[in-house]
Design brief:
By secondary structure, this protein is α+β, with helices and mostly antiparallel strands. It is 56% helix and 17% strand. It is built from eight helices and seven strands, in the order E-E-E-H-E-H-H-H-H-H-H-E-E-E-H. Strands 4-3-2-1-5-6-7 form a seven-stranded antiparallel beta sheet, with helices on both faces. A hairpin with a 2-residue loop joins strand 6 and strand 7. Helix 2 crosses helix 7 and helix 5 runs antiparallel to helix 7. It is flat, with a radius of gyration of 23 Å. 19% of the residues are buried.
Length: 210
Amino acid sequence: MKTERWQAINHHLVIDEASKKAVIVKDNDKKILNDPLAVKTLVDTEGQPVKTARTKLIRDTLRSKIKLEPLSVKRQFNDKGEYENAKKAENLLSNRPAEQYKQVKAELKFFGQSFLEGFLGFYGLEVDNALAEYENTLQVLEEQELGQSDKSYYIGVFKKGEAQKVTDEMYSREFAEKELKKFNDSLAKEQAVKEEVTQAISQSQKLERE
């Protein structure tokens, strides 16, 4: 069995390659990783298909980081033409969806069922967008065989539950992060050059038309 940890994502994914099942081990429960028998029991009793568990691991962390500003909720209701609900959004007391949800449920008589359904729809869309952005971004991936002290690092990408490595093994997290930064910086420079060329072509065409 091995553990897997993704950049900017909380907790460990423990994968049993024999059964092709995995479980999420939270950071405050990571002592269990020192007990292979306990981990095996956990996988046997609570294990899910690896892709399912990996997606849940990443989605749950991204969900916990999302903020929904009351003005954003108001704007989205306005865009749907639900002006009464848009006005109610001004009464939200937090930008944390979990706290907002508790407030709406506690004051459902004021907010109403249509507000709650719209709010949950906006929140779900934000989570989907965050997941799609994460899937389209290279990340540092850490792997470790249970019972071993050595860790392996890769630059990889999470795609629809799959872990796809795009580099060979790297010897440290710091080196992997440095290589990833170099790659991202080169992409940013390349994009800036493309934008300059596009602007120059657009300006040239404009002058020709004049």
